[in-house]
Hints:
The chain is mainly beta.
Amino acid sequence: MANNAEKILYLDQNAASCGDGTKEAPFSCLPCAFSKAKELLREANLPTHVIIDIAEGDYRIGETLTLTGEDMPISGSHLTLQANGCVTVSSLEDIPAKAFTSTGAPIHTATLLNADGTPRRFRYLYTNGRLATLALSGAPKVEEGATRQRFERDFDAKGREGANVKAECKMYLDRRLLAPLIGDKTDGILPVTDAELHTVAEWDYNIIHITAIDLDDTAVYEVKNPDDAWFIFKNEGVVAPEEHVAVYLKPDEYARFAFPGGFPFRGRHYFLQNALAFVDSENEYYRDGKSGVLSYYTEGDITQTCFAIPRLARLFSLEKIDGVTFDGLTFTGTDDYKLSEFGATCGQASCDGRFHDYPNAAAIYGHDCKHLTVKNCTFRDLGCEGISLRGRVEDLTVKDCTFRRIPSSAIRVGAPTNRWDETAGNLRVTVENNDIDEVATVYYTSPAICMASTKDALLSHNTITNCSYSGFSVGWHWDATTVPRGERVNIDNVEISDNYVASFCTEMCDGGGIYVLGGNAPNDYPELFNFVKRNCVVYTKNTANGNGNLVCGIYFDGSSSNWHALDNVIVEQSLGAHEKDKELDTLPARYVARMQARRSGSYYCYTQHHGTIAPDHNVLWENTYLLNARGQNKEEELFEAFHGYLCDDRNCTERNTVFVHGWESVPEVAKNVIASAGCDGRKCSLDELKENRY
């Protein structure tokens, strides 16, 4: 860009009137400046760098700002949007507090209609610039007392004849969960408006609308024993059997929800959302899609609250562009229309309806993008994703950005392919030094950073905390571990290094702090060319709250190959059993990269493999595992992963160290398992760890 002609357009929302973009007469609205920038790029006869210099302010747009390859016809041209101060871009539209009418209770209502009298279409409500809480039946997290149901038996292979599905479009839910909707009714069919059922199955997350409750159709499920209770309610612990009531579901949504591959629902929690009867806490709201009535709960002075609703699912849309930079902007205030009306079925990595499509709403959405840079930006309180890119992505850099309260993935690059696809493979991707917290808050199956087929990528020095699913998900390939020489494979020359991941898989199972999938080794060339190194993954007490199965610090899934994992630290933080474990909290960030943990204490390491093709051609060496035996009687199981995977002669393990709190109490059989995995096990010494390893 240094040799390009440079043109600067100035934007200042406080300008007296919308000028021509000069410093003396700046534009006052972002769409005007953006339109002028496209005009300059289209009319250029040599490579041109157009800069939109944006003065401090809150810039709200009513239409998605779209840039295509036709807007940049000259190769080498570039568009930069840079903040000159604190700049926020959103699609928010204010709702005056005077639009609300008190019902005589803490609930206030406002009717939101379009100009033609139809209800306003939106899902999210913003109060004082932050996402408010869509009314729900109970807290979805177990440690907060979530309602949980263990279904009596799984669906069969075709998803039919499940115990809780007596007929099409019908399920049985606990009466206590439905009580606010039922009220004092004792029989009959009650119509329901907008209420959603949220439930988890394996790594599927489903949202489906309830249309009616049938009080004449009930069932009772028994609690077999306290250790396998079917119901856990807030502040009640294990409770007695309770009557279940039939609910009817939307047929089109149900067809996708109930049969996404026959995965079990056993042991997963569910809850209900978006019903007027659930509006009972401060800053909760309900939106009636049929009438346009918004109901909001506050016991305070409503005139002190600033209300707004989003108008767009995308702020920026990029198609076949080459050369765009976003620098220093804050993005917020988007919606997700899919959830507003149609519910959602999300498979692994939030693929909608099992291998069909991903969520397509994002602050920055792109398809076939080259030389795209997003730096020093903040993404917060969005309706779906932060950055979401499809097609072929080349020379992407996302660095020094902050992501907060993101319903789906913070960063998503590409879509799954089973072999390298020239139209969809990603080249030269750098995701570096980003700070990500509270992510996948709605789409529970979304990794914080999700990247598909990629060659030459660096994912480094990122911090990821509080994610419903995996911190990283890289690659997608369920075929053989090795391929013929010369055939392009999914992951080539990828490095995942120096990252910190903690509090991951807080809702879902079968994931990890760092998750990789796919065969990447030519069958006559076993040398390594992908790296997972110097990462810290911390298991915390909220890891795998949804279900404890298959949650690993670093997870090589089916047919993963040609990965070299070295010098990583896997830490299991205390669940509160030992004061000694509090020392882990004193580790400075430079000692701890990123981590998370499993409640029951079985798979504390890199490895589980899924399906019939085991990971191959991988080397794990000089890694450190910090575990806590916690006086359990099943210490052998504690180290099962070392024996089940690391000792496999298809892979190589050398010079790993296992530090264990209470090493002296670990039985010999467990010590032998550690030794057979090529690991040196001994009592945990944090001082030694600090001095010798870092």
